[in-house]
Amino acid sequence: MLEIAAELVAAMVAHARADHPDEACGVIAGPIGGDRPERFIPMVNAARSPTFYEFDSLDLLRLYRDMDDHDEEPVVIYHSHTATEAYPSRTDVSYASEPHAHYVLVSTRETGSDEGPYELRSYRIVEGQITEEEVRVVGQSSRTE
Amino acid sequence: MSIEVRIPTILRPYTGDAKTVEASGDSLTAVIDDLETRHPGLRERLLDEGGSLRRFVNIYIDDEDVRFMGGLQAPVSDGASITILPAVAGGSADLG
Questions:
Q1: Residues A4/A136, Cβ–Cβ less than 8 Å
Q2: Suppose B31 and one of A62, A83, A117, B25 were both cysteines; which one would form an S-S bond, judging by CB atoms 3.0 to 4.6 Å apart?
Q3: Among B78, B68, B94, B76, which Cα is nearest to A61's?
Q4: Chain B 13-52, CB below 8 Å of chain A: which residues?
Q5: 3.10.20.30, 3.40.50.720, 3.40.50.150, 3.40.50.300: which CATH number matches B3-86?
Q6: Option in A53, A88, A99 nearest B89 (CB)
């Protein structure tokens, strides 16, 4: 199960909408071993593509250095699908390399950049196996939908 | 000569869970060969069947991406720090 603050969910959805129709991506870091997503870190999609995302290699190095300095790990790795459902593609699975991370997918296919209903789902992806998990949103969102 | 290599979480099963390991070699190829003798299996996770650096692995020598330093031929100096990081990538396209 992924337990996550409402404001972090809102931040991921806002990022996905802002970058639509390109895929948005980022990380929510948290204390090592704590399984608590805390620090929202939107990343640039170096591919700038509606069907692919990739962290720039030097951004990636800086991100991991920064998490290391804070004794953090990537608790959530999120990205958006902009024309398909919020389910990991074969590409997502082949690249997934953080066995302890929650892979969150946001789909903006219904509403694009606009407010409205969205799809947000979370998965573990370990050794090529996808396992969907419950998302428990805690706390009140300060944003109104 | 001694080089420090930082190992990502997903490859730590090969290093007895160690986050950093020592290696030696004057080029990236030599360092990877040396790593393989100390931590068997690691080489295959970094290089593909043709012996090229895998697309989804990033390797940095002193904070520079080796892809811009000659790839596997990149020179490594004594005391260098090497970081291995899996790419964070994906997307709705099925690359096949």
A1: yes
A2: B25
A3: B68
A4: none
A5: 3.10.20.30
A6: A53
Structure tokens, A116: 């409205």
Q: Please indicate if any CB of chain A lies within 8 Å of the CB of B85.
A: yes
Query: What is the average pLDDT value for chain A, to the nearest integer?
Result: 94
pLDDT per residue as tens digits for the range B18-73: 999 999 999 999 999 999 999 999 999 999 999 999 988 999 999 999 999 999 99
B28/A5 Cα distance (integer angstroms): 43
A89 CB near a chain B CB, below 8 Å? yes
Per DSSP, which regions of A18-141 are E strands? Answer: 25-31, 39-43, 53-54, 72-81, 102-107, 119-126, 129-133, 135-138
CB contacts, 8 Å: B94 with chain A:
89-91
pLDDT at A142 over 70: no
CB B24 within 8 A of CB B33: no
Determine the structural domain holding residue A44 and report its residue range.
Answer: 2-138
**For position B95, what pLDDT does the model report?**
62
Q: Are B7 and B21 in contact (CB under 8 A)?
A: yes
| Omega before A42 within 30 of 0, i.e. cis | no
